[in-house]
Amino acid sequence: MKAVAVYGYSPCTGKTSVAKELAGFFYQQGHNTMLVDTDLAKGNLTEKLGLNSSPNIGEWAADILKRLDCLPYWDINYTWNEIEPYVQTFDGLPVLASNTIEDLAGSPLLLSCINVILHSLLKTPYDVLVFDNSVGVCDYTLNILLRMDKVLLIVEPFSFSLPNVEAFVRLLVDEGFSLDQFGLVLNRYPTHAEQDPLEISRALGISLYGVLPNCPDLCGKKGQASIFTMNRINRLTEEIGHLADKLWSED
Length: 251
Description:
By secondary structure, the chain is an alpha/beta fold. It has a single domain (2-249), classed as Rossmann fold, CATH 3.40.50. It has helices spanning 15-28, 45-48, 57-67, 80-83, 110-121, 139-146, 162-174, 197-204, 235-249, and strands at 2-7, 33-38, 88-90, 93-96, 128-133, 150-155, 182-186, 207-211. It has an 8-stranded mixed β-sheet with strand order 3-4-2-5-1-6-7-8, sandwiched between helices. β3 (88-90) and β4 (93-96) form a beta hairpin. α1 (15-28) crosses α9 (235-249), α3 (57-67) crosses α5 and α5 (110-121) packs parallel to α6. The longest helix is centred in the C-terminal third of the chain and has 15 residues, at 235-249. The radius of gyration is 18 Å and the shape is globular. The protein starts with a strand and ends with a helix.
């Protein structure tokens, strides 16, 4: 199994769009794939993919929290048959969709809840799990990232600040991360006035995994949800394909 997290250290990097396109490509290539929204505060895969408000990851978490009243998290395990009722599909792609329960992200038992979710998902028969994660640094997000085979750090060239990102990377290293666990992805081609992707990669000590071409309709129009890698070929989907192939070929 490949477990890949898509992560942005700041808002508006397009991480959710990258996550859905990456999962869509893996799925189209015949890999048994699930897309998981673990942004428990502001997850928006439900809206982006035009899914139903229920079922979702929040409902699964609510059930876990009930069990945590009488059991430690390490004694709680969900089989695939128990997970499946919380999963929706988008054109055949299984999606553990956005949370809709308010204040779940503030629960004192959230870290234990996330441990149960991760432990259970990583035992499922999927070939690929793609996680769309919350922005910033918090305990439950760090716990998810630490369990991943690869974390794609999505960067917006226009708002990029090397000192800020260097400080962010140092924080992650202090938390026990290896820089080899990360791959750098720019969400669009930089202009001549912006920093060169390879220079950013060298400065951060993080391998450059991809630079996505500009795609103004990547997020889709309201009411017209789509995953482009599942139904069209263009420069964006080709680059997402290169990114997926690189991830798949890694040991």
